[in-house]
Amino acid sequence: MKEVYITKVSKFLPNEPVSNEQMEEKLGVINGKTSKARRIVLRNNKIKTRYYAIDENGDVTHNNAQLTKEAIMGLCQNGFAKEEIELLSCGTSSPDQILPSHASMVHGFLKNGNIEINSPSGACCSGMNALKYGFMAIKSGQVNNAVCTGSERTSSWMKSDVFENEISHLQGLEENPILAFNKEFLRWMLSDGAGAFLLQNEPKGKTPIRIDWMEGYSYAHELETCMYAGGEKLEDGNLKPWSEYPADVWGKMSLFAMKQDVKLLSENILVKGVDSLKKAMTKHNITQDDIDYYLPHISSYYFKENLYDELTHQGVEMPWDKWFLNLENVGNIGAGSIFIMLEELVNSGKLKKGDRILFHVPESARFSYSYAYLTVC
């Protein structure tokens, strides 16, 4: 089996950072009223700036595939050309369309010759699954290099016009035209951007980082859907997909908006996250002492202290000096978050040979968790 190294890292964040005060101006006001939920959510998540692929006129500047292509082009310099890519593996929660696949559209923008592509579906773990596919392909000797990405362009899913049809419908029924909190919650949480890694079977570059192992765990067998888009959650906990609704109600129910069952999230995301972390650490016989940098993908700083408490409660306390986070400045970029976190850590100049890094990536869609353990070479 070959060794696998991350030899280059890159990110692309569109346009200028958007402050909390600018968010509603960018995404639009629903029903002419400033959101009360916005203040509640922002107070808890403590995100100060994020990025949107929207210009000052509210027009889209980049789609998801274009964001991803720009991140990849950041890898294709200083001795590595896009024509050398052997495998392209791209994960996202927010593809630009149902078909063709996200990786196929990215490849179309790259125009770099005939290569293998892979598009894992899902939410935040889709980026980690894209990374794992590249990791396994190099590990098994299928290819010598792979470009793996995680990206999101959720701003267009959160713009006010996505919800106006529903609001108008509620007004027509003489009902209170206020969005349910589970729909509005994610409007104030998510950010646009893309991150990319170049994986190779040799430790090239200034700061090569070996991927020692990757693990994944799902709890869908015991927990119902928590975050979803393209469907509606029924009272019995099952998800009814958009394809089973008449087309004329898609807009009336905002079926294609991202939604979050906030109660289910708070009850399970940390407990299952630490449970799966313990499984991964036990399987590979490591302890907290074998980790120099802990990179947990959290959607909100609300979870930071609670995650620490849950780690401690389950016997895997992670000292604060090991944590590396950037949520405050870039926002929650879903599948792209872990890529952008490592890019910032690499470029911080803090890493030294022998440092060990642990990725901890949760996905609330139906509670999945992905892990990677890395060593700086």
List its salient traits.
377 residues; Peroxisomal Thiolase, Chain A, domain 1; transferase; acyltransferase; two-stranded antiparallel ribbon; 12 helices; 31% helix; 9-stranded mixed sheet; alpha+beta
Describe the structure.
The radius of gyration is 20 Å and the shape is globular. The strands form 4 sheets. Strands 5-4-6-7-1-8-15-14-13 form a 9-stranded mixed sheet, sandwiched between helices. It has a two-stranded antiparallel sheet with strand order 2-3. Helix 3 crosses helix 4. With 377 residues, the protein is an alpha+beta fold. The longest helix has 22 residues, at 262-283. The two termini are 18 Å apart. The chain has helices at 23-27, 36-45, 64-73, 102-110, 125-139, 155-158, 161-172, 181-184, 262-283, 302-313, 327-330, 337-347; strands at residues 5-12, 18-19, 49-50, 87-92, 116-118, 145-152, 193-200, 209-218, 227-228, 231-233, 239-241, 259-260, 293-296, 356-363, 368-376.
Quick check: average pLDDT?
A: 93
CATH superfamily of the largest domain: Thiolase/Chalcone synthase
User: How many beta-strand runs?
Assistant: 15
N-to-C SSE series?
EEHHEHEHEHEHHHEEEEEEHEHHHEE
- Main sheet summary: 9 strands, mixed
The N- and C-terminal alpha carbons lie at a distance of 18 Å
Using only CA atoms, what is the Rg? 20 Å
* Total number of helices: 12
Strand arrangement in the largest pleated sheet? 5-4-6-7-1-8-15-14-13
CATH topology title of the largest domain: Peroxisomal Thiolase, Chain A, domain 1
- Helix/strand-derived category reads alpha+beta
Helix proportion: 25-40%
- Beta-strand share of residues: 15-25%
How many domains would you count in the coordinates? 2
CATH architecture name of the largest domain:
3-Layer(aba) Sandwich
- Which stretches are low in confidence, meaning pLDDT under 50 for 5 or more residues running? none
